[in-house]
Fold each of these.
Amino acid sequence: MSHALPPLPDLRPQVSAAEWQARVDLAAAYRLIALFGWDDLVYTHLSMRVPDAPGQFLINPYGLFFEEITASSLVKVDHAGRPLQDSPFPVNPAGFVIHSTVHEARPEVACVMHTHTPHGVAVAAQAEGLLPLSQQSGFILNALAYHDYEGVALRDAERPRLAADLGGAMWMILRNHGLLTVGRSVPEAFQNLYLLEMACRIQVLAQSGGAALTRVGRPIIEDMPAQAREVSVGQGAGLVWPALRRRLDRQLPGYEA
């Protein structure tokens, strides 16, 4: 029995330049998730609005490892998760319930990312959630939301509660489940995920030491968004995204196919 991937056509000639760029950015984010070790076999997901195509989204082909995803393999779907292009792969039903809910509730959001990392789930299982223990957490705590666990996200009945809990936040901890971030672009959503993942990892490491922990004061936390803008010299996530792409080109090339 062959385990080779089926041949996939090059979609670059078939889509607009804007859609192709979105595909490349999202495929790069999938590969980066794999490179950083934040994937969970095939069971998490990132999504992106198709530019200039209302109600259309890109999401991973269900069954591919994130390190295998390419720009052409991403599946274009509508709001109901129905594929709008031929693909030998299905769409993750739980993934699309989460992503379609967020995209519908937040029209300014272009990209949604969701992971099940061990450190993220560990913090999601803690009653207090993310604690103000690190600089990384300080960037997040002013715009962090929580959503209680309701089982695998398969049911439409959960959608209004998920949307209401997210509100206008950029980061969300799905209790007992994992992490979710949004962004106006793929780079912004990825940098948000990086910060949240690192804050969770630092928290678990700090707690494992067994010593008393020092929390960052609320006045400092409230000033952190302004500090974040200053430290990124006005470029936001655009400051680091080209370097992340160069790392991919060195270590896990092929996502632009």
Amino acid sequence: MISYKNLNGNSNVKCYNISENYIDIEFYNTPLVYRYSNVVPGRQVLNELKRLAIQGYGLNSYINRYVKKNYERRIPVSAYNY
């Protein structure tokens, strides 16, 4: 996992992992890793999530505004293979 830059200073995103077909995101307030993929929520949204993660700004806001609970699955942090 890569630490999120959090350039705005108030994001709830802790870290992320980018793969070709998905992005996994860990938030500070939950013991879960959320997977967003090219299937759910779809390729266009996935590409934007990846772009924002790399940019280090706007990822949490984008998820809260547009993606919400539209994730593929949740993985317990304790079971996630870092």
Amino acid sequence: MPGVFEIYVQTHFSAAHALRGYSGDCARIHGHNWIIDVFVRCKALDDIGIGIDFRDIKKGVKRVLKNLDHFNLNELPPFQDITPTSENIAKFLYGELSRHLNSENITVSRIKVSETPGAGAFYWEE
């Protein structure tokens, strides 16, 4: 079986949200410094041994996060019908980044979204 490389970058953004239908403090609007880990699988390396340049991943992530950073996520179109939980944010980022980064040899493999350093969610598709 051929080997696969998994490359990742970590970044962050700041935004507010409220958990609709939640019975507790998080039903009120509050903010997080969201920590995002983007994992990308590479089937092959280029001539100098790179699967995908970290800069290319960061550029794709920056393009997507600029539409979330310093907003109330509940007010944004992707979260009009779903609550912007860590799980739903991870799924949204997976879809958006897959459109920007996927190619014949490169695939977004999973996304990790953390509300705090010790709590978050992963999303991937099988």
